[in-house]
Amino acid sequence: MVHATSEVIGMPSAFVEIVRPFARLVPVVKKPERSPSFKLRLLYTMIGVIAYLLMMNVPLWGINVGRGYDIFWSLRVILASSRGTLAELGIGPIVTGGLILEILAGSKMINIDFSDPDDRRAFNEAMRGMSVLMIIFESSVYVMGGAYGALSPDKAFAVFLQLAVASAVILMLDEAIRYYGVGSGISLFILAGVAQQIFWALFWPFPARDGLPIGFFAALIAVLTGSGRIEEIFLRWNSPDLVGLIVTIFVFITIIYLESVRVEIPVEHVRFKYRMTYPIKLMYSSNIPVILAGALFANIMFFSQILWSQYPNNFFVSLLGSWKVEQAYQGSRPIPTGGLAYFTVPPQSLLASLQNSIRAIGYSLIMIVSCWMFSVMWTDVAGLDPRSIAEQLLASELKIPGIRASVNEVANYIAPYIYTAASLSGILIGVIAAVADCLGAFATGSGILLATSITVGLYQEIARRYIEEVPGTFRKLLFGRGF
Q1: Percentage of residues in the chain with pLDDT exceeding 90?
Q2: Domains contained in the chain, CATH given
Q3: Residue 394: CB partners within 8 Å, gap ≥ 6?
């Protein structure tokens, strides 16, 4: 309870308290009283992913997918969404809700003490409440903004209801996998979407603008059977080509390597004096910065298109973004032609990047800076800051040799390592994602980066969950004393 006399936290707490009740509009998945077994976790994970894949293929009732505008066409992979289906909004509202709260907390516009369990609990509930608000907001604006063309009032309400309920189900699926499954629901949904996109990038048989099939291997087969010259598959205009395939493989290998790079800080047990190390990964913030950057770009595109459709001749609106519309496979596709939104959509091949070098450079800079900022912010918001880590070490009766066993002393010692890793993590992720995007990596560079880091993290968690169920004696025998 916050007292009215509190000058520092009165207003921020009021904002959090206003947002928190909206979390109850969507049923909360209850945390298990006992940790599910490893086999049950795998089963729940599989059920959750299959449910999401079904949602990505179940069309919305009452729309014609060929009408309207595909607002998020360039960010479908990051948002794990599918045009004209129950997963139209994907993870966008959930991530955007969290993004808003993180920006407010990171900029100190709301004062949250993340070392206080009550404050952290209130913040987590507020994040869920903000996600619910974004579900309602995006579902309504998506329908009214012409994403499916002109709809009658009854159909518009039906489509809004489908989008809102489906997004609420996605929110609950994410929580269910987080509590009862393996990994994060959001990460697994992205992974499933990337896998689907890579499959189509390799095998999609329908023709591209150059007359060859869109899929790389499909185009290669067409060329080998006499439908074109072999050099035509090396570089293509915004279609999967050999350069994109090489970049995809390179990103995959690079992320696997970077995930294994870490700094080992020596620690010892307070009572038993045996020594070990505490690892700080170079990729400290993992894939979170790219997801948040994707959500930021999606919202820039979203609001820019809404404002441009209403005020196309307004100078300040054009600073945010100006647009034109072109026909695509599924309806019309808005293309940014100026403003900030122009730099949120990368050229999608080497040829396109060479022709639009300013756009490629601008997109890369925005991606790198965004990932760096979100990486540092996420470190504090997610409880990965030096003080939280110091408290975890001391609670485990571990200390750093030569450093007094107090939270402040340990936190001051490890702070340079953590914030350096967080900064480098964000910058490296931004550079890799931007370069791969501009060179035409399959399923976008951001998608491949996310899929690889998610796969590595998933493998590590599966291994950890499995090891936890091995009896203690056999665990030491098989895996060593460290487990």
Answers
A1: 27
A2: 17-479 (1.10.3370.10)
A3: 405, 406, 407, 410
